[in-house]
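hey so i finally got around to running the thing on that chain from the lab meeting. sorry it took forever, my laptop kept dying and i had to restart like 3 times. anyway pasting the input first so we r on the same page abt which one it is
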Amino acid sequence: MNKRKSIVFKYFVLCTAVILISFICLGAVLLLVSSRYFIDEKKSLMKKNTEALVSFTKEKLESDPTDWKQAVTTRMHEYSISSNADFIMCDRSGFIIYDTSADNDNSPSVVRSSGLDTFAEECKYDFGTLDGTFSQELHITGMRFTANGPAYYMFAYSSKTQQENYMWNITEIFIISMVGVLAVAMFLVYVLTIKFTDPIKEIAEVSKKIGNGDFSVTVPDYDVEEYSQLSNAFNEMAASLKNYDTMRNSFLANVSHELRTPMTSMSGFVDGLLDGTIPKEQERHYLKIISSEVHRLARLVRSMLNLAKIEAGELKPNLTTFSALEPIVDTLVTFEPRLDQKRIEIQGLDVDRVNLYADNDLVHQVMYNLIENAIKFVDEDGYIRFTFTPSGDMTVISIKNSGEGLSEDELPLVFDRFYKTDKSRGLDKTGVGLGLNIVRSIIKLHGGKIMVRSVKGEYTEFIFTLPNKPTDE
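ok and heres what got predicted. didnt touch it at all, straight out
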């Protein structure tokens, strides 16, 4: 059973969870702030009304000491209704002169003297039972005052139920609003999630087509930066795959051609030897041709294997320190007959020791291929010039030969596999077109670079770099 969830589902659930958690946190903060606001406002109103009642009572006691009670109780009821709180007036002993509460059964008959001691002539707030005077905790404000000699106390009190009712009303309004907003938000998140994931589905469809071999498809550009970057990267990848596919087809075609040509000629010569078409006196000549073609096939296979090892990272260079002149001199000795035949002048080898830190065998192969290429294209009575320039951890080596040179169109192609110039096909029947490609791969394996310069009708020069000492990398 497939338990994997789609990105639409996961993103929708994630966004919904974030919104829900945000609402819960917002609700908790709202309730906390509302509770604090209610208490502050209630305390402020009760203190203000208590002070106002004390002022009014003192005035009545002093102006009408025998008939003040009716006016004071009436004013206490007015303040009780306007502030949604009850008021108590008592004397110094705690005897309650008047209580605005309509609940006579639960109203206290006397205020405990220990509860009175906490209040003075400045209005004070307290949350409690007034030292047991009330059966439940209340919001209380009170103060002591003196009029015509005796001391009196005025208290305002409000139950916690009012605060709870206020908080419940706030919570109810918030929950209803949250449900409505959450429903709208979830719908919008779902719609936006579908739209947000459409490019991913589109890229997945294009990927399937590319996987089936259709490299002509591309992903459109998007107005979202991240998707635009993904689209560009994907299209570049598709272009690279298309290029690799083209190179693969070209490679197979070239290999097929390179294999078919010598095999066809060998097959024809062998058939001629077997059926007697080739005279006995010419058998040795054609056997030499067959041997040459066999060696050419062997070089082709060996070159392809070396390239495959280098590209797969299986060929690890055996790094040692040696003179750069060694592989050059060894190669020149190998080609001595051809050098004498074309009367080629060798220049630039009369230098001090130039050390390289590389794989000796692989560098021999580089020098062999480049010198062979130079000898192939140098003109008669021409020159091959070597230069060596140390540059930090690398040594710049140049192999330059006089001759016809290469055209501007040919320069970017000389390192491609199986590439041969028209002139090369006429001058060299044994080459397979992999020499310069192998040279570039070996130099890159050592961390170096290679380039070619040429002036038509004057010279061709290959310039490359190789390490001359160990590095920290």
